[in-house]
Amino acid sequence: MSQLTKQQIKRYNRQIIVPSIGVKGQVKLLDAKVVIVGAGGLGCPVSSNLTGTGVGTIGIVDYDEVEESNLHRQLLHYESDVLKNSKVDSAINKLQQMNSSIKFIRHNILINSSNAFDILRDYDIVVDCTDNVATRYLLNDACVLLKKPLVSGSALQLEGQLTVYNYQDGPCYRCIFSKPPPPETVQNCGDSGVIGAVTGVIGSLQAMEVVKIIMNHENVMSGKLLLYDAAMCSFRNIKLRSRRKDCEVCGDNPTITKLINYEQFCGMCAMDKNPNLKILSENERMSVSDYQNITNDHLLIDVRAVNEFEMCQIKNSINVPIKQLLAGKLNDELLNEMRQKDVYVVCRRGNDSQLAVKCLSDKYSIKSKDLIGGLYKWNEEIDNNFPLY
Amino acid sequence: MDITLDFGGGAEVLFNNIKKRELKLDDGTKWTLRSFLQYMKDNLLTDRLELFMQGESVRPGILVLVNDTDWELLGELDYEIQPKDTISFISTLHGG
Questions:
Q1: How far is A59 from A43, CA to CA, in rounded Å?
Q2: Cβ atoms of B60 and A179 closer than 8 Å
Q3: Which of A44, A189, A266, A359 is catalytic?
Q4: CB nearest B94 (choices: A154, A157, A184)
Q5: Disulfide engineering: A57 pairs with which of A33, A185, A355, B5, CB 3.0-4.6 Å?
């Protein structure tokens, strides 16, 4: 007698007949419990693939609600979900229609050090589909302490990366990255962009690694890192170091034995939303409405990247990307003009503009002011038709 | 000797946005990754130093590979560069 029902055989036979799956494999899939952290660009393809393949219990963790800027890549979220549904509800509503036999568990919450164990404990495998450094360290440490494999994917612009941490005797995230990167070097999808097909590729690969772990397949991506470059359509498989005996969390004498404060450890927020920087004094800042009332001849410098400036800009503003400014690449003509006129600086949300004001003052002794809250505030208070992104 | 230098994960923006280049290193000296990092810093880096290096090594968050193998397996800074090596600097991604 088969261990599968007639209905299950009808539904899953195309994968059961794959030699490395078989009835045994399908039973393992149906018994497996997998939790996906993040229901965004990676979480959508991971959860749809695992739902289709028949992973019996699927948990999804996300604190966020669906926004319009998600739709281009997060394909489980529809126009009708925007600003109405949480990502968890939106995703699970669709997944239930794909496969009603799956048990879905909703974790509509921001995962952190105090709730992580409770959320992750009952699952066999954790899938990292998050968008920030702090949560990646949190998931790593939690998985090491709970002894669970972590299937990690990430994507930005035209590139993606995939690996499995803490699997059998393989390395964990900290074995490879014992120190977090400096905050100013970290790019996120919100600021740097990402292509939906790239998150789709990486998410599908993550789902495949989950299936391989459930199957006890011997070639799980542990101790290896896959680099996907969509521009070249190239896949590179990198050999990583082994588990570090002196690793802070998975080593022989770990110094991290419980979860710590990861935002503090990384100096970064546990979400892909920008913190509000405050590095200037009041007299170096100006509200958008006060700026609107200025009548004298002045310069408005927009420090966003060229692509962003091309999408939308305040009339008569001049584009000097922040990277160019911080690298000291300003031409003399512009510098002369800046020395003769009042200078105001604007960016998307009002963070880079502060860095720019500080840099102009420190490097060139040019006094300027930044527009508080940037183009977001401009849209809110001056021009509702100004495009936001 | 001829080597290939390439970048990924966005690390190329620190080096004039050039993803891959062929280099000819002076044959008269022995090259380690330590001395090569100094060479890169002095000759190739087009962005701020702190975005690439910390002390004499790379900053946290950049993986260094020699022929697709983690440099940690090869002696890190002390690895002696061989003709035809491909040296890669890969910035880790965090988005999703």
A1: 11
A2: yes
A3: A189
A4: A154
A5: A33
Nearest to A369 by CA among A283, A279, A278, A277: A283
Examine residue B24 and state whether it is found in any structural domain, yes or no: yes
B24 Cβ neighbours under 8 A, 6+ residues apart = B1, B2
Q: Is the pTM of this model over 0.95?
A: no
User: Structural domain of residue B18, as residue ranges?
Assistant: 2-91
- List, run by run, the mean pLDDT of 10-residue segments along chain B (96 residues): 96 94 94 98 93 95 97 97 98 93
A339 labelled ligand-binding? no
Distance (Å, whole) CA A358 – CA A284: 9
Which has the closest alpha carbon to A262: A120, A133, A116, A165? A133
- Residue A62, marked binder: yes
Tens of pLDDT, residue by residue over A52-87, are 999 999 999 999 999 999 999 999 999 999 999 999
**Is the Cβ–Cβ distance between A126 and A149 less than 8 Å?**
yes
CA distance A369 to chain B (A): 24
B63, containing H or E segment = strand B62-66
Q: How far is CA A346 from CA A209, A282, A304, A327, A368, in A?
A: 44, 16, 8, 18, 11
Contact criterion met (CB below 8 Å) for A180 and B61: yes
Residue B68 domain flag: yes
pLDDT digits (tens, 9 = 90+) for A359-382: 999 889 999 999 999 999 999 999
3-class secondary-structure state, position A298: strand
* Residue A143, Cβ density class (10 Å: 0-12 exposed, 13-18 middle, ≥19 buried): buried
Across chain A, mean pLDDT equals: 94
Strand partners, A106: A60
Residue of B46, B3, B42 whose CA lies nearest to B23: B3
Q: Can you read off the two tokens belonging to residue A287?
A: 């509200």
Distance CA B41, CA A224 (A): 28
How many domains does chain B divide into? 1
